[in-house]
Every structure is written in structure tokens, then in C-alpha cells.
Amino acid sequence: MTNNDASKSMPDSVPQTIPFFFGPATLLIPFLIFAAASVYLFVFLKVFDLMALAGAGLASLVSGALLTRSPKAYWKAVLEGAASELTATVLLLLMAAGVFSAMMKAAGLAQALAVLTGGAIAGTPFLTPAVFLISAVLATATGSSISTILAASPIFLPFGAALGCDVPMLAGAILSGAIFGDNLAPVSDVAIISAMTQSDNAGRPIDLGEVVRTRFPFAMAALILTLPFYFFGSTGRAEALEVFEEADLMSLVMIIPVALLIFVAIRSKDALHAVTLATVTGLVLGLLTGILTPAQIVSVKDGAISGVITGGIANVSGIMLMCLALFGFTGVIHRTGLADAAEKFLGREAASPRSAETLLAVVTVLISAALAAVTSVAVALAGQLADKLLRDRIDPYRRAYLLAGFANSLPVILPFSAFSLITLSAASSLGDASLTPFTLMTATYYPVALFVVFTLSIVTGIGRPKAQA
Fold first, then answer.
1. 3-state class (DSSP) for residue 67
2. Domain count, the chain
3. 414 domain-assigned
4. Are 18 and 328 in contact (CB under 8 A)?
5. Where are the beta strands (DSSP E) in 66-200?
6. Pairing state of beta strands 304-306 and 299-301?
7. Angle CA(321)–CA(399)–CA(371) in degrees, nearest 5?
8. What is the pLDDT of residues 199-216, one digit of tens each?
9. 262 within some domain
10. What is the DSSP letter of 48?
11. Gene Ontology terms, cellular component aspect (predicted)?
12. What separation in angstroms does the CA of 384 have from each of 32, 366, 379, 425?
């Protein structure tokens, strides 16, 4: 056999290290480009479009290819990361979750919840806590924090402002509720990605239903910690307003597919089955009760198709493409010396479970802040690194909820975060001068409560498996 023949037979069996012009640290340049693009899009241009962020992800991948001596090996590593079973699972779950979210929005659950509570508690100290809880239920039902903000803000902010309520406090309650669902909902992109990026010591992926179950006590502890702040911070007059004329209380029946989703996800340990079963149940209930019409599910007009199914997939297409690019990027990380160097560092700095968890928390918060709190992307990046480098030090389910919890904590309330800017944008038509990035930051309590709860969990060891305590 000639040397050429031997070299041709080697690449498939021996992983090829990617040589960068300035060493393995060169790989930080594409990440910095992506972080800068994220901040520029969300903060300066105020473009709240994940498809644009997916374009930034592709540009970052291309920049990496320009910094290596072996573009062929680089793109092969990208394809290995993008074509993994993990990537396929995440994309399918995001598609199914997108349809479920669009269905719940079309069914008008937010308006129905507002009708159920709004008139009875208008002008009382219970209004702001109720807005928080309704937003939390809506975000858990749809799995979409952004949709919750965009749906709840036009309903509750004008209503509360007309009653003399503290507008920043109401906006903070809406954002807090949205983050509750983003952290906990089985169909949330953050929950899906935090679960799918983690695996056990044998390399097997962990179960999404079990992830939701294990993080539930922490999510509820943060919720209980948050409620008194909204109760005692509430103001307003006693009279009620008729602002929910278009709402249909029949929409409350859509709580059934939400409960079914959570129950099946935990019971069957099959997230795809849970989401699809809940979606089919919701569509059938919607049609039988008249909440949904066939045209809302699928319709064709002038050669263009629209409806819950296609619209739901379109709504998550940006984050799907972003995950595709990001998982491709982590494929490159595995072919450089960065992982080995990080592993040596961790051997010194993360010898104990507490120090490993502290490191995970710090890295997750920093990545999330650097990406303007685009939490799904931050969790995808930090999750891949955590699974590779901390698998032997932290239980996989604990890794998953620490990732989601810290990504959804302090970075969310920063004045330049995507969530803050989206909330301010949704409230802009109100024209209330009291609502600014800084007043919103000081009135959004749930992310702070998440940070406190998970920090105490690390310090005290609460929730840590006994084998690792």
C-alpha cells in the first residue's frame, strides 16, 4: 500500500485536528463576532429577529473557515456537529413546539385568562401579582416568552395604566411571567435545548420530562419569592374597565392540552410524543368548541399557505437555523485543543461539585450577557461546553436546570438585553415616560429570584444528588 493510499484511509478513523493560524484560541474570534453581532442587532438596530441572528451565526462560521489552514477539515467538523442526532432531535422538537405555541396563541388563551381575573381584581393589590401569574401560565402553555410579552402587554398595560397602576411594575410582572415559562415549559426552546445538550456518563441523552420535573421545585421557589414584591408594590384605583370585549371564556378549555403536555412528558419520558399528542388534542378541542376554525389551522389564498401549522414552524425557523449553525460550531470546538486545555483547567478549578457548579453558573451568565440574553443561543453554547467538560462532575439533570436557570436570571434584566428591549417595544404605544430600561430592570423580580434560588442551591447543595454531594 502506498503512502497516499494509507492517508486516504485514515481520516474516517482518526479525527483530524484543525490547524488555526494563531492557535486554538483563534476559535474565540468567531464567537466574539457573533456576540458583537447579537448586541448590535438587538441593542443598536433594535432588530428582534432570530432569522437575522441565524445569519450572524452563519457569518461567524464562515469567519472561522477563513482563519484555518485546513478549510476542508473545518467544514467537515461543522457538518459532524450539525448532522448529529442531538441536532436532529432539537430541530424536530422546536418545530413541534412552534406549532403548539401558534395554536395556543390563535385560541386566545391570554384574553380568556384576563377576562377570568381582570374585572374582579382591578384596582386591588392583587392585580399586579395576577398579571405575573397569568403571564407565567401563558408562557408555560405556549413555551414562548416573546409571544407572551407581545400578547400580554397590549392587554394588561393599557388596562393597568387607566387604573393608575405602576406601569414599570406591570411590565416587569409580564416579563417575569414570560421568564417563568421560558425556564419551565416543556415546549420552551430553552428547556428543550438545555435538556437535549446534556447526556449522562454513558453518553445517553437525558429525558426532557424528567428535566421539567427536577427544575419545577426551583421554579416554584422563585415564583413564591417573587409574589410578595408585586403584591406590596401594587397601586391603582378600585373601578374596573371593560377592555376585554373580544375575549371568549371558552378558550380556557385550552388548559387541557397544556396539562396533557406536562403529564405525558413526565410520564412517558418522550418529549416529541407529548408535544404532538397535546397539539392534536388542542386542535381537536379547538375545532369542536369553535375556538379554532379550519382556516386558522391551514388555509390557502392567492397561492400562499398560512395557518397555525406553517406559521408555527416559521416562528421558530430562526432559532432552528441558529441551532444548526451553533451546533456546527461546537463540532469545530471538538477538533481543536480548546477542549483539552479547558479540561486541564477544570481539573484544578472544578475539583469539587460546588466549584464545578459555580464555574458553570459564571460561564452561563457571562455567555448569556454577552449575547444580549438571547437565552436559547446562550444555553446551546454553554450546554455543549458543559456536557463535554463537566459531564463527570455534575449530574446531567442538575446541569440542565442550572444552565436554563442562570441564563434566564440576571442577564435578562440588563438594559441592553433582548427581553428588556422587546418588552419596551411592546409597551411603546402606551407612551408612558416612567417606563425605561432602568425602571423595568428594577421591577423585574423573577429573574433575580431565579439567581438567588440557584445560587443558594449551589452553596447549600440543595438538589444536588447525594452521590455528588
1. coil
2. 1
3. no
4. no
5. none
6. antiparallel
7. 40
8. 888 778 788 888 888 999
9. yes
10. -
11. plasma membrane
12. 17, 15, 8, 32
